[in-house]
Amino acid sequence: MNLLAEKIELAKRLLEVEDENLLMQIKQLFDNDGKDFWDDLPSHVQQGIERAKKQAAEGKLTPHDEVMAKYEKYL
After folding, report:
1. Which helix (H) or strand (E) holds 49?
2. Which domain of life is it from (predicted)?
3. Do the beta carbons of residue 60 and residue 66 sit within 8 Å?
4. What is the pTM of this model?
């Protein structure tokens, strides 16, 4: 299918959508086109993610099953 046919098919499907939440999600997709969410994160969140990535690269991880076993009494 060529690009124009894809656009027409999407337009038809969009006109049939009755779910407001879905329409808002589609709108967000268009509004954020090409924009990286990273830039919108607060610096302390970015730093935390970078720290976690570094720890993962260094193998400083605890397996999921160990964490679950340790904390299952609180769940």
Report:
1. helix 43-57
2. Bacteria
3. no
4. 0.49
